[in-house]
Amino acid sequence: MALQGRLAAGALIALLGTTATGLPAAASSPAVAASPEAVRSAPAPAPAPAPAAMATPATVDLADWMGGLRAVLGDRPLNRIVMPGSHDSGSWSISRDSGVCSHGDQAGLANRFPSIAASLSRTQSGTIVDQLNGGARYFDLRLCKHGERWFTYHGGPMGGQFFDAPDGRGGVVRGEVNGIAEWIRAHPQEVVIIRLSTAAPADTARADNSEAVAALGAAIGGGAGNPYLADGSLSPASTYGRYLAAGRRVVLIDDMATTGHPWAWGPGAQTYRGSYVQADTAWTDYVKALFDPHTLRKNFDAVLRRGDQVLDRAPDPGDAGKFFVLQDIIDPSLSIPDLVLAQGLEKIGVIPSSVADQYLLYLEHQLNPLVLARLKGDWGTSNIAENMNVVMTDDVNQDGSGLRAGELQRRIIAQNAPPTTPRTFYGAGLVADGAWSAPAPLAGYGGSFRFAGARASAAALPDGSTQVLGRGLDGNLYHDVRSRGGAWQGWAPMAGAGRDAAFNAPEFAITGLPDGSAQVMAVGADGRAYHDIRRADGSWQGWSAVAGDAGTGWLRITKVSAAGMADGSARFLVFGEDGRMRLGTRRADGSWTCWAVVAGVGAPDFRGPALAIAALPGGESQIAAIGLDGNVWHTVLRADGTWQGWGGPPGVSTPRMGASAIALTGMPNGDGRLLAVGLDGTVWHTVRGRGGDWDPFRPVPGPKGSGSFAGDQVAIAGSPDGSARLLVTTR
Question: In this predicted model, what pLDDT tens digit does every residue of 323-360 receive, in sequence order?
Fold first, then answer.
């Protein structure tokens, strides 16, 4: 976090009649903190014991959590692993008198107001090794060159010495980097990302940056050739397993990209996606903040709201292969007046020095519990977690003020196995030889990350494309097209009937026709059936209500399925308002047949909760439906208009297949493919061969290598080349 603007309140301080703490500006000579020295001189920690086979985010050792969860993370890209990150990682050693980086962007103001600057610069309470042991795997490391030595810094204030350097008496002052290197050597299954930025004299900035990169690589790289450092053979999108197989434990990102070393990646390896909230810092804003008791809460809300916005938005195509760092941190600029007051009250014993000296930590200790609540709430499901990577916070080692030690980090890590977001649309492909592609969630409307809704329908077109209808969570219909090559056009809301801006439809169906058009039937808010056509050129004809039985009144329905026939007609299978199954056809010339009641199983009509119809070569139609007994039934309407009679596929372990939802499609070779959501919630698939025999039901593979898919609603569309597209909405 830059200090830009935070210290520009000097004029305001003078206006309030408050002076700086009185520490002389000459205190810009760096002080080497004692606590890191103890850490640096300690023996290297022994390798952690192998984690328990059943480790979970709640029980795993935070010092070894990647290795402990390797079964979950192994085949996941590193930029899709949700990991805790540390903001301004080296600032833990900043104090009132630890000095000022003369090349920092806020050096001048830090010299004028060193106490205020230090209090607003310290973002961590533990050493970098403490942060590693606390679960952090991404580090925002900022180094300042002071003379011939390198120190950590933030904006202006400087912390402890980072690299080894002569002590002037023939000895060596060891830097903090040694403890980091020892930790990396002792934790071979942990992958650490370090983003390095430096401050140095302008005329030697690039050369000095290269010096720092080389020194860091030499210290943590694992010896000659830097075998621990990720090189050009890997990328942010490489899997965690590939990193381990290659022995690469560290990703080093050089913010200035001055060296050209293959193990020093450039700043393009990561993105923040605009997740940092920068406060307005005009002097008038400080005055307003001084008299606004809600300033702090407004700042917290802005951080959380920005997180909502960023996580709900699909990444730009150029960011998909990068590390994504979500900055859950506060810009405390507008809290400067409060800090000035706090430091004044500290002098008379009203405010403890733990607040006055560490005001930014004090603020972050209030924000971090709010971030935790968000992770447990709106950010705690798969549609958000799948859009996360690095969650960067201040004070990785916070223990108190509403957080137990490691509580926030464990919750961040738990995002790697989040509960499934209900009603999310997933798509998968089935090639002609019967192999399934991995299910993948569909992007949402208007740039939102995922599409979630209650119902889906799919139709295959002669050109190999697939058209999809979905009902969003707002109840409205949306349409999308997937090209034969796999590219999606993007969701578009469907216009309503008459003057309505949108079409709100509880039930609907789409089917493709030989001329490249698609026909849609949907149930309107008034219960009537409406029909529309999407022409081959992409234009829509417009909704029209469908006439009812014998052409009188309007057709009122509760369920609908559609099948485009080879002769250009479209068949629509519905459950009427009275619960009876009916079949009607829109002929190729646009006229409609009467609606015929479909006989049931030993009953004058078929009734039930779900139905599906599919076209087959030669003019036949297959029908599947769930009866009032909860079982799947099947029949065939032959090309000559006669019916085969009701039968059905055997269940997985029962004489009949019980199901809550079904979908059916016909294939060019005469087979029919049936999807059923079993009573166990699993999506099952079977094939009815052209001779009438049924294959056994097999589970549809789930996301991320799962052997099954827990679904709510299903749709399937068979393509002319013998492949098929599947849609599933999650439970």
Answer: 999 999 988 665 566 555 556 656 666 567 767 688 88
Q: Rounded to an integer, what distance in angstroms lies between the CA atom of residue 88 and that of residue 144? A: 13
Alpha helix segments (H runs only) across 348-492: 353-356, 359-376, 382-385, 407-414
**Secondary structure in 3-state letters for 225-293:** CCCCECCCCCCCCCEHHHHHHHCCCEEEEECCCCCCCCCEECHHHEECCCCCCCCCCCHHHHHHHHCCC
* Rounded CA separation 165/147 (Å): 11
Closest CA to 673 of 614, 587, 609, 618: 614
User: Quick one: pLDDT at residue 293?
Assistant: 62
Of 654, 702, 695, nearest to 678 by C-alpha is: 654
Largest CA distance in the chain: 106
Give the integer Cα–Cα distance in Å for 636 and 379.
47
Q: pTM here? A: 0.82
SS3 15: helix
Cα(605)–Cα(582) distance, rounded to whole angstroms?
Answer: 9
- What band does 704 get if pLDDT is binned at 50, 70 and 90? confident
The string of DSSP letters for 486-553 reads S-B---EEPP-STT-SS-B-SSEEEEE-TTS-EEEEEE-TTSBEEEEEE-TTS-B---EEPB-GGG-S
Quote the CA–CA distance of 647 and 114 in Å, as a whole number: 84
